[in-house]
Design goal:
- By secondary structure, the chain is an alpha+beta fold.
- The chain is built from 17 helices and 24 strands.
- It has a five-stranded mixed sheet. A five-stranded mixed sheet has the order 20-21-24-23-22. Strands 2-3-1-6 form a four-stranded antiparallel sheet.
- The longest helix is centred in the C-terminal third of the chain and has 20 residues.
- The C terminus is likely disordered.
Length: 491
C-alpha cells in the first residue's frame, strides 16, 4: 500500500507517528507496531513521520498509549491520534455547500456548514459558506461551527465546536471508598475526585499535558487501570454508581509519589484515559497548593475546573466568619486538644513504647474540609512511608479506647466517634474524631502530624510553611505551638 491509501481509513482508526529515524522505512514501522495488535497499514508519509491504521478506534487508542516513547533505531518515537495532529478540519478535498449558520453540534455565531478551509497531509481544499447566527447563542459564548475541508485537515471540522467561553462545566463526583478497599492498601487516601468525560470539553484534550507538567514522566509516575467491567475495583464502581445514579465504566489513575488518585468515567477507552488524567491532576492540585500555581495561566480550561471545585490560587477556597484575619483566613477552626490517658491504657501499656499524651483533632464537617485537605501531605513530610509506618485503628463506639473518649470529654470536646493513628517508629499517636470514617481518618492524620512535628521540633517550621496556611492558622487558634508566619516570631 502507498502513502495515499491511509485516506481510506477513518481518522479514529489512525495513529500519527513522529520522531522516526531518518533512515526508517515503512517496513521498520510495520515490524515495530506488529509487536502489539495487527495494524492494517504502516507507511511512511515523509522523513520522520508515518501513519499506522487499525481495524478499530479502540485498537488505535491502545497503540497510542503502548508505543508512545518506545524506540525505533535508537530514537524515542512519539504517537498521537491522527485527528490531534492533523487538525480539526477535514482533509483537503474542499468544503461542502454553503450553510445557513446553524448546526446541531455548533450553535452560535460562526461560519456556516462547509465554511473555511482544511489542510490535509496530501494537500489543501477550500470551500466557503455564509455567515449564520443562532438566536440561542446571542449574549452567550460564540462558537465556530461546522467548517473546514473534508476528512481531517487544519481548521474547524465537522461536529467540532470551540467555545470562547471558559465556563465549560465538568460533571464531577466526590468518591469515597471504605478503608478495607484495595485503594488505601496501596497508600492512597479513601477519597478521590471522579470526572465524567464529555466530548468537546476542552479540559479533556489538555489532560495529558497538564498532568505531565505536574508529575513529570507520566509513564513512570502514574499507574492507570481501566476497569470497565468492575473486575479490579468493584467498590469504586459501586461508589461511582451511588454518586451518579447509574452504572458506568471507569479508569483509575494513581500517583504514588503524590499520594492521590483520580477516576475517569466514560464508555470508551479514550474518554476514560483522558478524564482520569484530568481527575488525577485535580487531586494533585487539591492536595498541593504550589502545584496549581505552577501551571500559571497556561491552561484556562483547567483553571476554570479548579474554580468550579472551589480551588483558587492553588489552595482550596474557604474561610469562616468573623474573627482575626490570618493571611486571608478568619473565623473558627477545627478544635484541637492535647489529651492524656492513664498508664493502664492500651496505648501506653501495649508494649509499643507510646507516650501517655497525644493530640486529638475533630473534623466538624464539610464547612471546614479545607483544614484537612492537606493532612496526608503534611504527614508525609514527617513520615517517609505513611502506608507502611502508620496504623489506623477505627473505634467509632469507643469500645476499645473508652479512656480516650473520656479524656476528650474532659478536655471540653464534644462526644464523637474516634480513630487512632499510631506511628510506633517515631513513638507518636494522634486521635481523629468525626461521625464518618473519611473525616476520622483525615483528622487522625492531622493529629498524628502534630504529635510527630512536636516530637521532632518541627512544629514551628510546618506552621510557617506557606503551602499549609490552614495548618498554621488552626494551631494558632487552638493555642498550640505558634502557627504564625516566620515574619511573626514565636511567642
Amino acid at each position: 500500500m502507498g502513502a495515499e491509501d491511509h485516506n481510506s481509513f477513518e481518522a479514529a482508526q489512525k495513529v500519527w507517528v513522529g520522531n522516526l529515524p531518518a533512515e526508517a522505512t515503512s517496513e521498520d514501522l510495520d515490524a515495530h507496531f506488529r509487536q502489539l495488535g495487527a495494524p492494517l497499514l504502516c507507511v511512511l508519509l515523509r522523513k520522520g513521520v508515518g501513519v499506522v491504521a487499525y481495524g478499530s478506534a479502540e485498537e488505535a487508542d491502545t497503540s497510542i498509549s503502548a508505543f508512545n516513547g518506545s524506540e525505533i533505531g535508537g530514537m524515542a518515537i512519539k504517537t498521537d491520534s491522527w485527528a490531534a495532529k492533523q487538525g480539526k478540519g477535514k482533509e483537503g478535498k474542499g468544503g461542502k455547500a454553503a450553510g445557513n449558520g446553524k448546526d446541531g453540534k455548533g450553535k452560535g455565531c460562526g461560519f456556516g456548514k462547509g465554511a473555511g478551509w482544511g489542510w490535509g497531509p496530501m494537500g489543501m481544499g477550500m470551500g466557503w459558506g455564509g455567515w449564520g447566527m443562532d438566536p440561542w447563542m446571542m449574549g452567550k459564548a460564540a462558537m465556530w461551527m461546522k467548517g473546514g475541508g473534508k476528512d481531517k485537515g487544519g481548521g474547524w471540522g465537522e461536529d467540532q465546536s470551540h467555545t470562547f467561553s471558559s465556563n465549560q462545566r465538568v460533571t464531577t463526583y466526590a468518591i469515597t471508598v471504605d478503608a478495607s478497599s484495595a485503594i488505601p492498601a496501596q497508600g492512597m487516601p479513601t477519597d478521590a475526585p471522579a470526572l465524567a468525560y464529555e466530548k468537546g470539553v476542552d479540559v479533556f484534550g489538555s489532560g495529558a499535558h497538564i498532568l505531565g507538567e505536574l508529575v513529570g514522566d507520566i509513564a513512570t509516575e502514574v499507574l492507570i487501570t481501566h476497569d470497565a467491567d468492575w473486575e479490579t475495583y468493584p467498590e469504586v464502581g459501586a461508589a461511582v454508581k451511588a454518586a451518579s445514579g447509574e452504572e458506568n465504566c471507569f479508569a483509575i489513575a494513581m500517583c504514588p509519589s503524590a499520594g492521590v488518585w483520580g477516576i475517569g468515567v466514560a464508555n470508551g477507552w479514550k474518554g476514560r484515559e483522558a478524564s482520569c488524567k484530568v481527575a488525577l491532576a485535580l487531586a494533585i492540585c487539591r492536595a498541593n497548593a504550589p502545584a496549581a500555581k505552577s501551571l500559571g495561566n497556561r491552561y484556562p480550561e483547567f483553571t476554570a475546573l479548579l474554580r468550579q471545585q472551589g480551588v483558587k490560587g492553588g489552595k482550596a477556597a474557604g474561610g469562616g466568619g468573623g474573627g482575626a484575619s490570618y493571611g486571608g483566613m478568619s473565623g473558627d477552626t477545627p478544635p484541637v486538644h492535647m489529651i492524656s490517658v492513664p498508664a493502664d491504657s492500651v496505648i501506653v501499656a501495649g508494649g509499643l513504647g507510646l507516650p501517655a499524651e497525644g493530640p486529638a483533632v475533630m473534623h466538624p464537617g464539610k464547612h471546614m474540609k479545607e483544614y484537612f485537605s492537606n493532612a496526608h501531605s503534611i504527614l508525609s513530610e514527617l513520615v517517609e512511608d505513611v502506608a507502611a509506618e502508620v496504623v489506623f485503628e477505627d473505634d467509632p463506639d469507643a469500645k476499645a479506647l473508652p479512656e480516650v473518649a473520656a479524656a476528650w470529654a474532659e478536655a471540653g470536646g464534644e462526644e464523637n466517634c474516634l480513630c487512632i493513628a499510631k506511628c510506633t517508629s517515631l513513638g507518636c499517636w494522634g486521635i481523629g474524631l468525626a461521625p464518618g470514617w473519611k473525616g476520622r481518618e483525615s483528622a487522625a492524620k492531622m493529629a498524628l502530624a502534630i504529635a510527630i512535628a512536636q516530637n521532632m521540633g518541627k512544629l514551628e517550621e510546618l506552621s510557617a510553611n506557606p503551602n499549609y496556611p490552614e495548618f498554621g492558622y488552626m494551631l494558632s487558634k487552638n493555642g498550640i505551638g505558634d502557627g504564625q508566619p516566620k515574619k511573626k516570631r514565636k511567642v
